[in-house]
Amino acid sequence: MAGENLIQVNQDKCTKCGLCVKVCRGTLGLGEQGPEIVHDFCIACGHCVAVCPNGALDHTRAPLKNQVLLEKSPVPDVETAARFLRSRRSVRTFQKKPIPRENIRELLDIARFAPTACNSQGISYYVVDDLDTLKKIAAVIADWAEEDLKHGSLGKSPWSQNTSNTIRCYHENGEDTILRDAPCLIIATADKNRFPLGRDNTHFALTYAQLYAPTLGLGTCWSGLFEYCATSGYEPLLKLLKLPESRTITGAFLVGYPVYTFKRLVDRDPLQITWQ
Ligand SMILES: Cc1cc2nc3c(=O)[nH]c(=O)nc-3n(C[C@H](O)[C@H](O)[C@H](O)COP(=O)(O)O)c2cc1C
Protein backbone atom coordinates (compact mmCIF):
# COMPACT_ATOMS: atom_id res chain seq x y z
CA MET A 1 0.00 0.00 0.00
CA ALA A 2 1.22 3.54 -0.78
CA GLY A 3 2.46 5.37 2.31
CA GLU A 4 3.83 2.16 3.78
CA ASN A 5 7.18 3.76 4.52
CA LEU A 6 5.68 6.68 6.41
CA ILE A 7 6.14 5.07 9.81
CA GLN A 8 9.02 3.18 11.31
CA VAL A 9 8.42 1.01 14.37
CA ASN A 10 11.22 0.11 16.76
CA GLN A 11 10.24 -3.45 17.59
CA ASP A 12 12.47 -3.49 20.71
CA LYS A 13 10.49 -0.61 22.20
CA CYS A 14 6.98 -1.22 20.85
CA THR A 15 4.67 -2.99 23.34
CA LYS A 16 1.77 -3.08 20.84
CA CYS A 17 -0.37 -1.16 23.32
CA GLY A 18 -2.21 0.43 20.37
CA LEU A 19 -2.24 4.00 21.74
CA CYS A 20 -0.84 5.30 18.44
CA VAL A 21 -3.76 3.67 16.62
CA LYS A 22 -6.32 5.11 19.04
CA VAL A 23 -5.18 8.73 18.56
CA CYS A 24 -4.86 8.39 14.78
CA ARG A 25 -7.58 9.67 12.44
CA GLY A 26 -7.79 6.29 10.74
CA THR A 27 -4.48 5.91 8.92
CA LEU A 28 -3.01 3.41 11.39
CA GLY A 29 -4.21 -0.02 12.36
CA LEU A 30 -2.72 -2.56 14.77
CA GLY A 31 -1.14 -5.54 13.02
CA GLU A 32 0.76 -8.50 14.43
CA GLN A 33 4.01 -6.53 14.31
CA GLY A 34 2.45 -3.43 15.91
CA PRO A 35 1.12 -0.29 14.18
CA GLU A 36 0.91 -0.22 10.40
CA ILE A 37 -0.57 2.02 7.73
CA VAL A 38 -4.03 0.76 6.74
CA HIS A 39 -5.40 3.82 4.93
CA ASP A 40 -3.46 6.23 2.82
CA PHE A 41 -4.63 9.62 4.06
CA CYS A 42 -2.09 10.60 6.70
CA ILE A 43 -2.01 14.37 7.41
CA ALA A 44 1.27 14.12 9.35
CA CYS A 45 -0.22 15.52 12.55
CA GLY A 46 2.39 13.57 14.53
CA HIS A 47 -0.08 12.37 17.20
CA CYS A 48 1.03 8.74 16.81
CA VAL A 49 4.65 9.70 17.54
CA ALA A 50 3.72 12.05 20.38
CA VAL A 51 1.50 9.63 22.28
CA CYS A 52 3.91 6.69 22.37
CA PRO A 53 5.26 6.36 25.94
CA ASN A 54 8.31 4.44 24.72
CA GLY A 55 9.43 6.52 21.72
CA ALA A 56 8.91 3.40 19.63
CA LEU A 57 7.33 5.09 16.62
CA ASP A 58 8.93 7.38 14.09
CA HIS A 59 7.23 9.11 11.18
CA THR A 60 8.89 10.37 8.04
CA ARG A 61 6.80 13.56 7.92
CA ALA A 62 6.58 14.09 11.69
CA PRO A 63 10.02 12.90 12.86
CA LEU A 64 10.47 11.79 16.44
CA LYS A 65 13.68 13.83 16.73
CA ASN A 66 11.72 17.08 16.10
CA GLN A 67 9.16 16.42 18.83
CA VAL A 68 10.38 17.77 22.16
CA LEU A 69 9.82 15.44 25.09
CA LEU A 70 7.13 16.67 27.47
CA GLU A 71 7.88 15.35 30.96
CA LYS A 72 5.16 17.21 32.80
CA SER A 73 2.07 19.03 31.57
CA PRO A 74 2.81 22.76 31.28
CA VAL A 75 -0.88 23.70 31.68
CA PRO A 76 -1.09 26.69 34.07
CA ASP A 77 -3.64 26.82 36.86
CA VAL A 78 -7.03 28.32 35.95
CA GLU A 79 -6.36 31.71 37.48
CA THR A 80 -2.98 32.13 35.78
CA ALA A 81 -4.39 30.99 32.44
CA ALA A 82 -7.40 33.30 32.64
CA ARG A 83 -5.32 36.29 33.72
CA PHE A 84 -2.81 35.64 30.97
CA LEU A 85 -5.46 35.44 28.22
CA ARG A 86 -7.38 38.40 29.61
CA SER A 87 -4.31 40.60 29.84
CA ARG A 88 -3.78 40.74 26.06
CA ARG A 89 -4.77 44.09 24.62
CA SER A 90 -4.18 45.86 21.35
CA VAL A 91 -1.22 48.19 21.50
CA ARG A 92 -1.49 51.34 19.38
CA THR A 93 1.32 53.47 20.79
CA PHE A 94 4.82 52.18 20.18
CA GLN A 95 8.27 53.30 21.29
CA LYS A 96 10.43 54.61 18.48
CA LYS A 97 12.71 51.65 18.78
CA PRO A 98 13.49 48.99 16.19
CA ILE A 99 12.89 45.34 17.02
CA PRO A 100 15.87 43.02 16.54
CA ARG A 101 15.07 40.70 13.65
CA GLU A 102 15.91 37.65 15.76
CA ASN A 103 13.03 38.63 18.07
CA ILE A 104 10.64 38.89 15.12
CA ARG A 105 11.86 35.51 13.98
CA GLU A 106 11.19 34.08 17.45
CA LEU A 107 7.72 35.67 17.52
CA LEU A 108 6.77 34.14 14.19
CA ASP A 109 8.37 30.82 14.93
CA ILE A 110 5.83 30.19 17.68
CA ALA A 111 3.02 30.84 15.18
CA ARG A 112 4.14 27.73 13.27
CA PHE A 113 2.70 25.59 16.04
CA ALA A 114 -0.86 26.84 15.70
CA PRO A 115 -3.41 24.38 14.33
CA THR A 116 -4.30 24.48 10.63
CA ALA A 117 -7.10 22.74 8.74
CA CYS A 118 -6.00 19.17 7.91
CA ASN A 119 -2.53 20.25 9.10
CA SER A 120 -2.27 22.21 5.84
CA GLN A 121 0.17 24.84 7.33
CA GLY A 122 1.71 26.81 4.43
CA ILE A 123 1.63 30.32 5.93
CA SER A 124 4.64 32.50 5.17
CA TYR A 125 5.45 36.02 6.28
CA TYR A 126 6.65 39.27 4.82
CA VAL A 127 8.04 41.61 7.42
CA VAL A 128 8.26 45.34 6.78
CA ASP A 129 10.59 47.06 9.23
CA ASP A 130 11.76 49.94 7.02
CA LEU A 131 10.18 53.15 8.34
CA ASP A 132 9.96 54.85 4.92
CA THR A 133 8.18 51.86 3.44
CA LEU A 134 5.78 51.78 6.40
CA LYS A 135 4.94 55.45 5.82
CA LYS A 136 4.30 54.80 2.13
CA ILE A 137 2.04 51.84 2.98
CA ALA A 138 0.02 53.96 5.44
CA ALA A 139 -0.40 56.72 2.83
CA VAL A 140 -1.58 54.27 0.19
CA ILE A 141 -4.09 52.70 2.59
CA ALA A 142 -5.41 56.17 3.45
CA ASP A 143 -6.03 56.85 -0.27
CA TRP A 144 -7.77 53.51 -0.70
CA ALA A 145 -9.92 53.90 2.42
CA GLU A 146 -11.05 57.38 1.39
CA GLU A 147 -12.12 56.13 -2.02
CA ASP A 148 -13.68 52.95 -0.63
CA LEU A 149 -15.68 54.85 1.98
CA LYS A 150 -17.40 56.65 -0.90
CA HIS A 151 -17.99 53.73 -3.26
CA GLY A 152 -16.98 50.39 -1.73
CA SER A 153 -17.76 47.97 1.06
CA LEU A 154 -16.13 50.07 3.82
CA GLY A 155 -18.79 52.72 3.29
CA LYS A 156 -21.53 50.17 3.87
CA SER A 157 -19.89 48.53 6.89
CA PRO A 158 -21.13 49.22 10.43
CA TRP A 159 -17.63 50.59 11.17
CA SER A 160 -17.61 53.18 8.42
CA GLN A 161 -17.85 56.00 10.98
CA ASN A 162 -14.82 54.64 12.80
CA THR A 163 -12.86 54.30 9.56
CA SER A 164 -13.82 57.86 8.46
CA ASN A 165 -12.54 59.13 11.75
CA THR A 166 -9.29 57.17 11.38
CA ILE A 167 -8.69 58.70 7.94
CA ARG A 168 -9.69 62.22 9.06
CA CYS A 169 -7.20 62.11 11.95
CA TYR A 170 -4.54 60.74 9.60
CA HIS A 171 -4.90 63.81 7.36
CA GLU A 172 -5.75 66.53 9.84
CA ASN A 173 -3.52 65.73 12.82
CA GLY A 174 -0.64 64.12 10.96
CA GLU A 175 -1.06 61.08 13.24
CA ASP A 176 -0.42 57.66 11.75
CA THR A 177 -3.82 56.30 12.71
CA ILE A 178 -3.40 53.53 10.12
CA LEU A 179 -0.15 51.77 10.99
CA ARG A 180 0.15 53.55 14.35
CA ASP A 181 3.80 54.52 13.73
CA ALA A 182 4.68 50.93 14.53
CA PRO A 183 8.30 49.98 13.77
CA CYS A 184 7.18 46.76 12.12
CA LEU A 185 4.30 45.35 10.10
CA ILE A 186 3.95 41.59 9.81
CA ILE A 187 2.09 40.35 6.76
CA ALA A 188 0.90 36.75 6.57
CA THR A 189 0.39 35.09 3.22
CA ALA A 190 -0.93 31.80 1.91
CA ASP A 191 -1.00 30.09 -1.44
CA LYS A 192 -3.56 31.81 -3.69
CA ASN A 193 -5.26 28.49 -4.38
CA ARG A 194 -5.75 27.86 -0.68
CA PHE A 195 -7.98 30.87 0.05
CA PRO A 196 -10.12 31.15 2.24
CA LEU A 197 -8.61 28.22 4.18
CA GLY A 198 -5.30 30.11 4.37
CA ARG A 199 -7.06 33.04 5.98
CA ASP A 200 -8.64 30.89 8.67
CA ASN A 201 -5.28 29.24 9.36
CA THR A 202 -3.61 32.64 9.51
CA HIS A 203 -5.92 33.94 12.18
CA PHE A 204 -4.96 31.15 14.56
CA ALA A 205 -1.26 31.54 13.76
CA LEU A 206 -1.35 35.29 14.32
CA THR A 207 -3.23 34.82 17.57
CA TYR A 208 -0.45 32.54 18.82
CA ALA A 209 2.13 35.19 17.92
CA GLN A 210 0.11 37.96 19.55
CA LEU A 211 -0.30 36.02 22.78
CA TYR A 212 3.41 35.23 22.83
CA ALA A 213 4.52 38.80 22.05
CA PRO A 214 4.52 40.12 25.68
CA THR A 215 7.02 37.36 26.56
CA LEU A 216 9.45 39.25 24.33
CA GLY A 217 8.36 42.63 25.73
CA LEU A 218 6.38 43.34 22.56
CA GLY A 219 2.86 44.63 21.94
CA THR A 220 0.74 43.99 18.86
CA CYS A 221 -2.36 45.22 17.05
CA TRP A 222 -4.25 43.54 14.20
CA SER A 223 -4.22 45.64 11.07
CA GLY A 224 -7.61 45.04 9.56
CA LEU A 225 -7.34 48.15 7.41
CA PHE A 226 -4.15 46.85 5.85
CA GLU A 227 -5.71 43.45 5.25
CA TYR A 228 -8.91 44.80 3.71
CA CYS A 229 -6.96 47.13 1.42
CA ALA A 230 -4.64 44.32 0.32
CA THR A 231 -7.38 41.76 -0.21
CA SER A 232 -9.38 44.25 -2.24
CA GLY A 233 -6.51 43.98 -4.74
CA TYR A 234 -5.61 47.69 -4.51
CA GLU A 235 -2.81 47.98 -7.07
CA PRO A 236 -0.77 50.81 -5.46
CA LEU A 237 -0.44 48.75 -2.27
CA LEU A 238 0.37 45.51 -4.06
CA LYS A 239 2.98 47.33 -6.16
CA LEU A 240 4.69 48.56 -3.00
CA LEU A 241 4.73 45.09 -1.45
CA LYS A 242 5.94 43.18 -4.51
CA LEU A 243 4.75 39.80 -3.25
CA PRO A 244 5.10 36.76 -5.50
CA GLU A 245 2.11 36.15 -7.82
CA SER A 246 1.38 32.82 -6.14
CA ARG A 247 0.80 34.29 -2.65
CA THR A 248 -2.22 36.07 -1.27
CA ILE A 249 -2.38 38.22 1.87
CA THR A 250 -4.34 36.55 4.65
CA GLY A 251 -3.74 38.80 7.66
CA ALA A 252 -1.43 41.35 9.22
CA PHE A 253 -0.49 42.88 12.53
CA LEU A 254 1.62 45.70 13.88
CA VAL A 255 4.30 45.05 16.44
CA GLY A 256 6.59 47.12 18.62
CA TYR A 257 7.57 47.98 22.17
CA PRO A 258 4.53 49.45 23.97
CA VAL A 259 4.67 52.92 25.49
CA TYR A 260 1.86 52.31 28.00
CA THR A 261 1.11 49.45 30.39
CA PHE A 262 -2.50 48.43 30.98
CA LYS A 263 -3.40 48.02 34.63
CA ARG A 264 -6.64 46.06 34.22
CA LEU A 265 -7.83 42.88 32.57
CA VAL A 266 -10.05 42.89 29.47
CA ASP A 267 -13.82 42.89 29.97
CA ARG A 268 -16.38 42.10 27.25
CA ASP A 269 -20.10 41.68 26.69
CA PRO A 270 -21.67 38.93 28.83
CA LEU A 271 -21.31 35.37 27.60
CA GLN A 272 -24.22 34.11 25.52
CA ILE A 273 -24.89 30.38 25.29
CA THR A 274 -27.91 28.47 24.13
CA TRP A 275 -28.00 24.90 25.49
CA GLN A 276 -29.81 22.44 23.27
C1 LIG B 1 -9.71 41.22 12.62
C2 LIG B 1 -9.32 42.45 13.41
C3 LIG B 1 -8.97 43.61 12.73
C4 LIG B 1 -8.57 44.76 13.45
N1 LIG B 1 -8.16 45.87 12.76
C5 LIG B 1 -7.70 46.94 13.45
C6 LIG B 1 -7.17 48.09 12.76
O1 LIG B 1 -7.11 48.15 11.54
N2 LIG B 1 -6.72 49.14 13.50
C7 LIG B 1 -6.74 49.11 14.87
O2 LIG B 1 -6.30 50.08 15.48
N3 LIG B 1 -7.24 48.05 15.56
C8 LIG B 1 -7.69 46.96 14.89
N4 LIG B 1 -8.17 45.85 15.58
C9 LIG B 1 -8.14 45.83 17.04
C10 LIG B 1 -9.56 45.91 17.65
O3 LIG B 1 -10.06 47.21 17.53
C11 LIG B 1 -9.43 45.47 19.12
O4 LIG B 1 -9.06 44.11 19.15
C12 LIG B 1 -10.74 45.63 19.91
O5 LIG B 1 -11.08 46.98 19.99
C13 LIG B 1 -10.60 45.09 21.34
O6 LIG B 1 -9.49 45.67 22.00
P1 LIG B 1 -8.30 44.78 22.57
O7 LIG B 1 -7.66 44.06 21.42
O8 LIG B 1 -7.36 45.75 23.22
O9 LIG B 1 -8.86 43.83 23.56
C14 LIG B 1 -8.57 44.72 14.88
C15 LIG B 1 -8.92 43.53 15.54
C16 LIG B 1 -9.27 42.41 14.82
C17 LIG B 1 -9.61 41.14 15.58
Low-pLDDT stretches? none
How would you spell out the order of helices and strands? EHEEHEHHEHHHEHEHHE
Helices, by number, come to 10
Specify the CATH architecture of the largest domain.
3-Layer(aba) Sandwich
Q: Which ligands does the model contain, each kind named once?
A: flavin mononucleotide
Q: Mean pLDDT, nearest integer?
A: 95
How many domains? 2
Instruction: Write down the CATH class of the largest domain.
Output: Alpha Beta
General description of the model:
The protein has 276 residues and is of the alpha+beta class. The protein folds into 2 domains: 4-66, Alpha-Beta Plaits; 81-256, NADH Oxidase (3-Layer(aba) Sandwich). Helices cover 36% and strands 15% of the residues. The chain is built from 10 helices and 8 strands. The strands form 3 sheets. Strands 5-6-8-7 form a 4-stranded antiparallel beta sheet, sandwiched between helices. β2 and β3 (34-37) form a beta hairpin. α4 packs across α8. Bound molecules: flavin mononucleotide. Flavin mononucleotide binds at residues 89-90, 92, 221-225, 266.
